[in-house]
Amino acid sequence: MRGTRAAQRYAKAILSLAKDKNSAEAVNKDMITISKTVLNSRDLENMLTSPVVKDSIKKSALLEIFKDLDTITKGAIDIMITNGRISILHLVARQYIVLYNDLNNVRQAVVTTAIPLDGQLKSIVLAKVKELTGSEASLKNIVDEDIIGGFVLRVGDMQYDASVSRNLTRLKRELKDNTYVSKI
């Protein structure tokens, strides 16, 4: 993907400055907001990548959309506009989040469920992640009705499958391989 090396460099620099100024958490919240907003708005992404739109308009639009940004985040946007790199803002935001999570030993957990998680279920799943990995995690929920019930939890390269569909498949396999049941 184009611009990922530059995005990583910007993210490292922003994180370093944010740590020095004790605002890494506030900047992380800004980056999460920026990443989600750009990801969900095709118009905003097109505006940021358009060579036709002037940098001053891009800056004023970003500052209007994201009103409560930390001063470090605002400064990063200024530098990226000055250097002609504002088109990779969403990549910088995503890379910053990854670096921040690595720094704070927070892992990304993906949980697949048949229905969307509510607050209580979310806390139960986060407790299970803490039990399995020994570290905190941010949670992403994917809804897949094919698992019927239960959940499938993925943290890094580890997977914990407590879905109904898996249990049914396992039971079907056991019954199929059972010599007594197969004769019936």
UniProtKB/TrEMBL annotation:
Q: Could you state one GO cellular component term attached to this entry? A: proton-transporting ATP synthase complex
Q: What is its main location?
A: membrane
Its placement in the membrane is given as: Peripheral membrane protein
Subcellular location(s) of the protein: Cell membrane; Membrane
Molecular function GO terms recorded: proton-transporting ATP synthase activity, rotational mechanism
| Keyword Protease belongs to the record | no
Q: List keywords of the entry alphabetically.
A: ATP synthesis, Cell membrane, CF(1), Hydrogen ion transport, Ion transport, Membrane, Transport
Q: Which HAMAP family match?
A: ATP_synth_delta_bact
- Function of the protein: This protein is part of the stalk that links CF(0) to CF(1). It either transmits conformational changes from CF(0) to CF(1) or is implicated in proton conduction. F(1)F(0) ATP synthase produces ATP from ADP in the presence of a proton or sodium gradient. F-type ATPases consist of two structural domains, F(1) containing the extramembraneous catalytic core and F(0) containing the membrane proton channel, linked together by a central stalk and a peripheral stalk. During catalysis, ATP synthesis in the catalytic domain of F(1) is coupled via a rotary mechanism of the central stalk subunits to proton translocation.
Q: Which family does it belong to?
A: Belongs to the ATPase delta chain family.
Name listed for the protein in its UniProt record? ATP synthase subunit delta
Per the UniProt record, the source organism is Christiangramia aestuarii
What's the gene? atpH
